[in-house]
Design brief:
Radius of gyration: 24 Å
Structural class: alpha/beta
Number of helices: 18
Strand content: 5-15%
Bound molecules: pyridoxal-5'-phosphate
CATH topology of the largest domain: Aspartate Aminotransferase, domain 2
Helix content: 40-55%
Number of strands: 15
Amino acid sequence: MPSHASAARVAALVGSVSPSPPASVATSGAGSGPAYARLADALRHAITDGRLPEGIRLPSERELTGPVGLSRTTVTRAYAELREQGYLETRRGSGSVVRLPEVPGGRVDHLLSPASLDSEALDLTCTAQAAPTGLAEAYAQALAELPCYLAGTGYYPSGIPVLREGIAQRFTERGLPTDPEQVIVTAGALGGVATAAGALVRRRDPVLVESPTYPNVISALTGTGARLVPHPIDHLASDWDLPGLTAAVRSSGARAAYLIPDFHNPTGALMNGDQRRELARVLRAAGTVAIVDESLVDLPLDGQEMPAPLASHLPTAITVGSASKTLWGGLRVGWVRAPRGRVEELANSRLRQDLGTPVLEQLATAHLLSRYDAVLAERHAQLRAGRDVLVEGLAEHLPDWRVRVPGGGMALWCALPMPGSTALAVAAREHGVVLASGPNFAPAGGLDGWVRLPYALPPERLAQVPARLAAAWEDVVRGRVRLGTDLRRREHDRRIIA
Ligand SMILES: Cc1ncc(COP(=O)(O)O)c(C=O)c1O
């Protein structure tokens, strides 16, 4: 991402905002009213839409006057308005930098990040990025289509048809022919897992899970009363131990298995095609139903071909997907792909949670899916840069941490030279980094020798992480971190991790 936008680029983005605007101005976001207000509107539109991303430096007021054809006073007033609204920050010597205004009460819920977190802290509790370019535009298109839905009740418990079609088409393109009737839209992938578990799992049923695994699913499955059967996956080899898994499936008699075969969270492991075929055979023979979480499937970062979906080898599998990792977490859109014979059972389970996902969000998601390749290209480039910055920085500042560089997904899973992940999370806060320690990912305790580092923040922010972590790790190694039971519990109880 360039660090500054040239005057010509900004002028092209805002279109004409001269005193008598042509008809096209309204659609370019320039609005009506005095010229300074139209310029401010057009700039705000480009900022909220991601075309002028947060952190980019705008041309000076003097530089912009010529290319936009407005007086210096007009440009100065427009910048002043944006500053007042929180879209620009001007510092002597460094010019005017784009900002996104703070949400009253903070950008993220206190359950995700501690309330005391200062805005300069680097929050590594989430494998999720800021909204992509074009998100506000997708909402604008959705809003324009909303009138078609107003004559109905707005309840679509399985999702609106256009989105179900878009999701089904994507499965079909990936080699898993899918009818829109098999798709149930949910509140994120987490809602999808809850839908699957609600249909399948009864109290005390054994459910196989990988260890480590995604923390919120540990809570969701435990909440259904399931008895979790953890199966260790080999973190550094980034691999599944199929003979071990087979033995665990057979001996536990697991009713269901929750699996993340595509850039597994937190390890980043990718199950290969042979392993998928073998696993399908084992699960089929045992009558164990797979709940396959594909939340990260669209994030291969090295241009590699992805193996066919697990469900293409295992027709009984229930596949869960999400818009959160590639589009935006704020959409709260996910889905379940049900096997043909299970659609009604899963739709009923989804109904027991709530009566559907909001129509506007579904419409916006459908729009983004219609130009998914462009969104993915942007996501892949950002994540690749973030991953590489973090890997290089760790090699320099923490050479005795062991990391296997994942081919995709959003996080590094690092082996520490000694157990101390909980203490590290406590120390890291003092150095301005918020972490989810290894034990959060452990279905049955342990994993204090591991830490997950997401690379979802912008690369320039991630570049600051390794030095801060090295200082925090030094505190741990020198025994400067004292963990009372309270602190230990607090670190492990925070299971609201994305
Ligand atoms: C494997 C996995 N499943 C589910 C989720 C939750 O996704 P959503 O926001 O779609 O509920 C995440 C988020 O980090 C995840 O990594």
